[in-house]
Amino acid sequence: MKSTGKARDEQPKYPRMFLIPCSCGTSFAIAEDFDRSGTHIRSFIPCSNCGKRHDPKNRVLRLGYAHERFWKVEGC
């Protein structure tokens, strides 16, 4: 099966990371499309260190890999 040029154009040039920081100092990564369907108690992610629950819609840091070869915050 051949891959189309259109599919390649839709992919970002550089990788991106989505992190949730916790007040205990731990940060953990989530998938970009982790919670597209809305927030409810089951979608809150518990911190593996302290157990505090985080809403991924409100706490995500978006990091993108910059041309200068370092990670840069794209948005909060």
Radius of gyration over C-alpha positions, nearest whole angstrom: 15 Å
Reading the helices and strands in chain order gives: HEEEEHEE
Q: Are there runs of 5+ residues with pLDDT below 50, and where? A: none
What is the count of structural domains? 1
Class by SSE composition: alpha+beta
The separation of the N and C termini measures 38 Å
Overall mean pLDDT: 76
The fraction of residues assigned to DSSP E strands is 25-35%
Number of strands: 6
- Percent of residues in helices comes to 10-25%
* Tally of DSSP helical segments: 2
Major β-sheet strand ordering: 2-1-5-6
Main sheet characteristics: 4 strands, antiparallel
Shape: globular
Could you walk me through the main structural features you see in this protein, from its secondary elements to its overall organization?
The model has no long low-confidence stretch (mean pLDDT 76). The strands form two sheets. Strands 2-1-5-6 form a four-stranded antiparallel beta sheet, with no helix packed on it. Strands 3-4 form a two-stranded antiparallel ribbon. A hairpin with a 5-residue loop joins β5 and β6 (71-75). It contains two helices and six strands. With 76 residues, it is an alpha+beta fold. It is globular and about 35 Å long. It has helices spanning 5-10, 56-59, and strands spanning 16-21, 27-29, 45-46, 53-54, 61-65, 71-75. The protein has one domain (5-75). The longest helix is centred in the N-terminal third of the chain and has 6 residues, at 5-10.
